[in-house]
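writing this on my phone so excuse typos. first protein, seq and then structure
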Amino acid sequence: MRSLRGFRDPAPSRGAYKLQRLMLTPLFRLFLRVGLPFGTVALGVGLYLADQERRDALILGAADIRRQIEERPEFMVNLMSITGASAEVAEDIREIIPIDFPVTSFDLDLEQIRARAEELDAVARARVRVRTGGVLEIEVAEREPAVVWRMERGLELLDAEGHRVASLTRRTDRPELPLLAGDGAYLAVPEALTLLTTAEMIAPRIRGLLRVGERRWDLVLDRNQRILLPEAAPVAALERVLALDEAQGLLGRDLTVVDMRNPARPTLRLSQEASETFRETRFDLTGSQTE
């Protein structure tokens, strides 16, 4: 019988067997391929960044690289262009948006610039962009004045929605715009414009609209005449007055007030001279005795 001494057992050891079994596990192979290299790199980076001076040097280096990129000529803005605005509004925009040029486009907050421009009463909308060539362009849509509002502290220009546009020094500076007066008139500008459009046939006689009690309008005409309109359905009431004027020449008569506050009972108020003439005529018609 041959001796087995000197022959190596081909079976793997216990440790080698367990290692082979682990290598057959997908999760262990993934750890060797990904987890171990990543962990080694992370450990190395962590040990390197543990030193404060190294961290500060990296931060300064990254900031320097970023600044070099941001200050490249293609990213620099050298001037501001304002379009769609009058000279006065453009000057106001430049005052509230002071920018020291040249400046990198990365330092410009376009949304904030747009919001600042729209804070001006005269600006309805603004659009801001950086145009090629290093130009900051602010495109402005101005509010169009529609009426003049007379208040205790002066005159204001309002747009068709009642938003303030600018102050006005003298009424004669904008004679083509209709005049509104009274507290709260700015809250009902659309209604006022509708009334003025309805009364277009007597436009040369209109002096303005007076807001009464912040709830209704008086249409003020020349010759000290007024049309007192109701709070509800003022346009319909005005149309009735205009129809009577066209059919019977109502507003051409010697009267001071056409009161339509109660549409069911319109009231006319004669002038003092007309009232006296009416009383005298009525007295004569009743049969006064004369010597």
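second protein below, same order as before
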Amino acid sequence: MPQPNMQQMLKQVQKMQQDMMAAQEQLKHEVVEASAGGGMVTVKVTGDLEIKDVRIDPDAVDPDDVELLQDLVLAATNEALRSAQELAASKMGGLTGGLDLGGLGGLGGMPGLGR
């Protein structure tokens, strides 16, 4: 059985790390959006999980029912974060070919991607 070419494997791993870093940089510029309450609250999040925008329809602001508005903001934010994590997972998963590389590429630091 031939020995694996360690230099070739190292080059492949280094290229994969570079590709993953480039993909992580791209994720900073991609934005997903989610809304709740039929669009009363809309949240935009980047692919690297930074909340960029929160929009609240003035009709959603009812001083007698602040809890509803809080629930709408929470629901829209959580959905936007889930979408951003799925976007990141799909971009990063394609680069590793489904391999579990542990901490390579810094994925372990992104919430939801170390599953």
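The radius of gyration is 19 Å. thats all i got for now
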